[in-house]
Amino acid sequence: MFYGVRRGRRPGVYLTWNECKEQVDRFPAARFKKFGTEEEAWEFVRGRAGPSDPSGQESNREREEEPAEKRKRESASDEDEPPSKHVKPEPSPEPLLGRDKFIYMGESAVVYTDGCCSSNGRRRARAGIGIYWGPGHPLNVGDRLPGRQTNQRAEIHAACKAIEQAKNQNIEKLVLYTDSMFTINGITSWVKGWKKNGWKTSTGKDVINKDDFIKLDELTRGMDIQWMHIPGHAGFVGNEEADRLAREGARKADDSA
Fold first, then answer.
1. Distance between alpha carbon 247 and the CA centroid of its chain, in Å?
2. Are the beta carbons of 147 and 214 closer than 8 angstroms?
3. Are 28 and 80 spatial neighbours (Cβ–Cβ below 8 Å)?
4. What would the 3-class secondary structure string for the chain be?
5. Helices 237-250 and 38-45 sit at what angle, rounded to 10 degrees?
6. How many whole angstroms separate alpha carbon 149 and alpha carbon 144?
7. Which terminus of the chain is less hemmed in, N or C, by CB atoms within 10 Å?
């Protein structure tokens, strides 16, 4: 089962009741619910009602694991909830945001990345990167990919940008969703072999995206990143939004030109 926490110490999706309970126990006006799929849980966290619960509210049947005292506290007015705490802004390339501005899975902030390229492999190719942190999030990005315009480079650089943003926000643990198995395999497996072989493939050829993976490898140092594959164009909101942002970015002018 998946436990969606819409309002709690750290909103997000959790795999066990104990993890969920840590986020909502004794938290004023907590909102949480149990789901059969991760997608439904994330929909609830983002404030969208699921098909089996048009109101978006938790039912007593789905809260049977909660103690009666907890259910009573949950019925309190939203006005009882203390104001959100924000981290004081510090000089950085981007404004420092409070932890409440991010979606969390356990201790890790969640981000979706995607890259796209129209006319990939052709002279007039146009590539873009998309980074999606949540609805209307100030760190959402849809930019043109600088340099060589390819789909694979766009996927890698989208991940790079998201990690750069996370570091600027002092986020050390990240769950990064991407539909690019090429990027995931490259950074979690192939890079190690490439380094040993002097950035040569197993067949002795130069690694085409060497500079891009060097940058990604450097950015991952000091970060705890869970690389999560998500099927592209399968209706997952985070991936669809990242794809939309990437396509918007591809339509922008190339600043590096």
1. 18
2. no
3. yes
4. CEEEEEECCCCEEECCHHHHHHHHCCCCCCEEEEECCHHHHHHHHCCCCCCCCCCCCCCCHHHCCCCHHHHHHHCCCHHHCCCCCCCCCCCCCCCCCCHHHCCEECCEEEEEEEEEEECCCCCCCEEEEEEECCCCCCCCEEEECCCCCCHHHHHHHHHHHHHHHHHHCCCCEEEEEECCHHHHHHHHHHHHHHHHCCCECCCCCECCCHHHHHHHHHHHCCCEEEEEECCCCCCCHHHHHHHHHHHHHHCCCCCCC
5. 70
6. 9
7. C
Select from 233, 220, 7 the least CA-distant residue to 100.
7
| pLDDT one digit per residue (tens) for the chain, 257 residues | 788 888 888 888 888 888 888 888 888 778 888 888 888 888 888 875 444 333 333 333 333 334 444 333 333 322 233 333 333 333 335 678 888 889 998 899 999 999 999 988 888 899 999 999 999 999 999 999 999 999 999 999 999 999 999 999 999 999 999 999 999 999 999 999 999 999 998 888 899 999 999 999 999 999 999 999 988 877 788 999 999 999 999 998 876 54
Closest CA to 76 of 36, 32, 29, 116: 29
The answer to whether the CB of 110 falls within 8 A of the CB of 175 is yes
Q: Are 97 and 111 within 8 A, CB to CB?
A: no
Nearest to 228, CA basis, from 158, 171, 182, 178? 178
